[in-house]
Write a structure and sequence with these properties.
293 residues; mainly alpha; two-stranded antiparallel sheet; 3% strand; globular
């Protein structure tokens, strides 16, 4: 039983990493209707920015806050000067552009700071606490708490604020939103900026665990996309729960299913995804889209 509980707790911690990126993807989709594959690259760039500041003697908290400001500006600029040229065209073209942007950002990070592993200071202590024979690191607890807070704030943004409702209106029908007097361009910039902020938070949480490299979030991005599809593109709560489910099932399958083991555990979320898409295509917590013709 102790091993089982330990695996579940470790799965929650790992799933929180996936959830951080998944929330950013949901935010961009809710604000623009697009899937942003460059989200991981933008998060890595923010983490490098914070790491560079800490090396210049800036306190870690201040460096992370400055990286959040930098990320908001970066997201807004990317939307204004790049993505806006494609947002009203074929959605597939815009998706390909975000993939190209991911490659570009990763290359820039590697060019500026090399591809060597860098040590990013942890925001939380590295100590562990024991409870009922299970050891849990304070860093894992802190990461999970931050993701829960981000989930609650994002859900509150889209459900209970005028800004969130305006962002959703722009994503659903930008022409009607413009006719209603909403500043569509500014809202799109804000949506991308807020998503980049979530990415910066994700980068600061993940970098101490994985070591900082230009491609550190590539695998996490794949899991995050699986969590987004599994949980539902319209539900911040759903993607976080889905990311936790993926993290837990992945750990349990690696230990308790002999033919899977640690080598094939990456297949677990995709098997789960395949089953859910057959039974409930909109995701576990997503809403069906009704189109009138």
């Amino acid at each position: 039983m102790g091993t089982f509980i330990q695996l579940v707790i470790d799965g929650l911690s790992t799933g929180s990493v996936y959830a951080a990126l998944a929330l950013a993807i949901v935010l961009v989709h809710s604000a623009t209707g697009l899937i942003n594959f460059a989200q991981g690259g933008m998060a890595v760039l923010a983490a490098y920015f914070a790491w560079y500041l800490t090396n210049q003697g800036v306190p870690l908290i201040v460096a992370i806050l400055l990286s959040i400001v930098f990320s908001f500006a970066l997201g807004a600029v990317v939307e204004r000067w790049l993505m806006r040229r494609f947002e009203r065209g074929d959605p597939d073209t815009a998706v390909v552009v975000t993939i190209g942007l991911l490659t570009l950002i990763t290359g820039i990070a590697g060019w500026l700071w090399t591809y060597n592993n860098q040590q990013f200071p942890s925001l939380f202590p590295l100590d562990t606490v024991s409870f009922l024979g299970v050891s849990v690191s304070i860093r894992s607890i802190g990461t999970t708490v931050v993701i829960v807070v981000a989930m609650v704030l994002l859900q509150a943004l889209f459900v209970g604020t005028k800004l969130g409702l305006a962002l959703r209106a722009v994503a659903i029908n930008p022409q009607s939103a413009a006719f209603s007097g909403l500043p569509v361009g500014r809202l799109l910039m804000v949506g991308w900026g807020l998503a980049a902020v979530l990415g910066a938070v994700a980068g600061a949480l993940v970098a101490p665990q994985l070591t900082l490299t230009p491609g550190m979030l590539d695998n996490a991005l794949v899991y995050a996309l699986a969590a987004v599809i599994l949980g539902g593109l319209t539900s911040p709560v759903g993607v976080v729960v889905a990311a936790w489910i993926i993290g837990i099932l992945e750990n349990l399958a690696a230990v308790y299913v002999p033919f899977i083991g640690h080598d094939l555990k990456i297949a677990v979320p995709f098997i789960l995804l395949f089953v859910v898409l057959i039974v409930r295509p909109q995701g576990l917590f997503g809403r069906k889209t009704v189109v009138r013709v």
